[in-house]
Write a structure and sequence with these properties.
Beta-Lactamase; five-stranded antiparallel β-sheet; 18 helices; rod-shaped
Length: 594
């Protein structure tokens, strides 16, 4: 809102008014004393012109009125013979006096309006929230507003007339900014906005963002520059602090992503964010996970009560910690040590959860391996006892039964009973053999062995089993040579082919493919059966676990131990096209690496 300038007082300058009055009186007296002299009346114009120096624009009018009165009195006191001449002279002088007075008054009105406009403009400049600085072509300050003075910490009179660059610009920036000023002075584009620090009265620095324009003189030439500046010191420091905080957060996120599996869910358990490690271990893409809940990776290993207690803890705003067993997209099982942190709103209610997982699969495997080794050590001790205390007596019992059977007549009805006992003893002996082989495997006697011919001879042994007459075996692929114990490998392949035939109920085709690449010989054994259920697949290598009506559960564990003793691996998976797929990998000799 603008304010109207107040009306000036009647007498704005008493001294000047007194001088005007004395001069008017003097001219009047001179005109009376020298009545015949023509030209004293125009002297009143000089007194009227004194109004140019007065603050009151009405002074010239008051002088004109008094001068007119004086001229009129002078005419009345003049002789009649001179009246006509004096009247014409007085009339002309009065016209000149009033014309001058009116012009002086109009000039003063224009002057006061300009002053009022300047004051109003100065008010606008002073209340502006930005610095306003005008420089001439030499860089001298010719105008600065109140905000500029406040930022610099100086009075206006201290600033005006000083060189801006020498006094208020840091020395390290001085030459560069002088060059910028020269560009502005030359009216070159491209320097309308820039940022630079200025030096305040106390020696501190403030960072100012400037917008600049060129000031032009009456004839269009460059007279200087006008710059509006905003103090952005606090804002820029806040931005720097924010950038530093964002970098710290980015570094923390990077460190977290490199070391942990992270997921963020809403209160309903739907996934909002997962990091790369989560995708890597779960085998799901980010698009497949976002919007889903964690049931997508549920291994069905934990009870409903387990998850109920978990959600009860986190929904109450508490942190939950524990271990979880999950399933990847390809069916692989992995273990994670999990911490679930609820994020709370102003009411203390969770609005999202962050789950931070650590992969402990290898640790779990190492624990399982340690337990297996402990079990195997005890099993080995037991096997030694069994071999000495059970196996030898069984052999003696079977030999005695054979002798008894040979003495019985061929038509004796007890002969079938003896035969059945012998078969049971053979089965028990076979079980003991498997147990001994698993508990105390022989060290392989390695020699060069061609894998494919070895498998083909194993197929020949397999075909002797009358229960597998409906199973055919297809052997295809390369003919690599490995360093291995041929007899032990033959036992492995025979076990795998028998398992494949049994999975198809004795009818179908077992496909065996041999390949070699990257220094490894790979043997794939695939059947056409129904596949392996996930709950069975997880326990395939547990000793004594079996799904067969009659079986020891030691076939696959023994096969894997043999392969591992040869420096290889044995894996069992469900084939994507149905059936089971067993992969045996054995190292190739270096000289035969493709």
């Amino acid at each position: 809102m603008t304010t109207r300038p107040s009306r000036p007082p009647l007498v704005a300058d008493p001294g000047l008014t007194l001088v005007a009055g004395l001069l008017t009186a003097l001219i009047f007296i001179v005109g009376l004393e020298v009545p015949l002299v023509i030209g004293t009346e125009p002297l009143y114009v000089i007194v009227v012109l004194l109004g140019l120096r007065a603050r009151d624009r009405r002074l010239s009018l008051w002088v004109a009125a008094v001068a007119t009165l004086c001229i009129s009195v002078h005419l009345l006191l003049s002789p009649l013979v001179e009246f006509a001449l004096l009247f014409i002279n007085g009339w002309l002088s009065t016209m000149v006096i009033w014309t001058t007075a009116i012009l002086v008054r109009q000039y003063k009105q224009a002057e006061q309006k300009a002053e009022a406009s300047a004051l109003e403009a100065q008010r606008y400049l002073d209340v502006a929230g930005t610095m306003l600085v005008a420089l001439d072509t030499a860089g001298t300050v010719v105008m600065i507003n109140r905000q500029g003075c406040a930022v610099l910490g100086c009075d206006e009179q201290e600033i005006l007339g000083t060189n801006w660059f020498d006094r208020f610009v840091p020395e390290r920036q001085r030459e560069r900014l002088k060059a910028v000023h020269l560009q502005l002075k030359a009216a070159q584009p491209g320097v309308e906005y820039f940022e630079n620090p200025i030096v305040t009265r106390n020696g501190g620095e403030r960072l100012i963002a400037w917008h600049n324009t060129v000031l032009r003189g009456e004839h269009g030439g460059v007279a200087g520059t006008l710059s509006s500046g905003t103090d952005i010191t606090e804002r820029r420091e806040a931005e720097w602090r924010l950038q530093a905080s964002m970098k710290d957060l980015a570094d923390l996120k990077y460190a977290l992503d490199q070391s942990a599996i992270v997921a963020v869910t809403d209160v309903g358990g739907r996934i909002k964010y997962v990091n790369d490690k989560f995708c890597e271990i779960s085998k799901y893409s980010r698009q497949e996970l976002i919007g889903k809940d964690h049931r997508l990776i549920n291994s069905r290993s934990h009870s409903k009560e387990f998850f109920r207690e978990l959600w009860q803890v986190v929904s109450n705003g508490q942190i939950w910690r524990g271990e979880m067993r999950n399933r990847a997209k390809d069916g692989a099982i992995y273990w994670v040590d999990t911490t679930i942190v609820p994020f709370l709103d102003d009411r203390g209610k969770p609005y999202q959860y962050m789950a931070i997982h650590t992969d402990i699969t290898e640790r779990k495997r190492a624990g399982t391996k340690l337990r297996e080794q402990t079990t195997l050590a005890r099993l080995g001790e037991m096997a030694a006892i069994v071999a000495h205390e059970v196996k030898n007596p069984l052999a003696g019992i079977r030999g005695a039964l054979q002798i008894i059977g040979s003495r019985l007549p061929s038509d004796n009805r007890d002969r079938p009973i003896l035969k059945d006992i012998q078969e049971r003893l053979d089965a028990l002996n076979e079980l003991l053999e498997d147990l001994l082989l698993f508990a105390r495997p022989k060290e392989p006697r390695t020699a060069p062995a061609e894998v494919r011919p070895l498998i083909e001879t194993t197929v020949g042994l397999f075909k002797r089993d009358p229960g597998m007459a409906g199973v055919s075996v297809s052997v295809l692929g390369d003919r690599p040579t490995v360093l291995a114990d041929a007899e032990q490998l033959r036992r492995v392949f025979l076990n795998l082919i028998i398992n494949a035939g049994q999975a198809m109920d004795g009818h179908g085709v077992v496909h065996v493919v041999v390949s070699s690449k990257d220094g490894t010989c790979e043997i794939a054994v695939k059947d056409e059966g129904p596949g392996i259920p996930p709950e069975v697949l997880e326990r395939m290598f547990e000793p004594f676990f079996t799904t067969k009506h009659r079986g020891t559960g030691l076939g696959l564990p023994t096969a894997r131990r043999i392969v591992e003793r040869h420096g290889g691996t044995l894996q069992v998976n469900s084939s994507p096209g149905g059936g089971a797929l067993v992969l045996v990998s054995l190292p190739l000799p270096r000289q035969e690496t493709p």
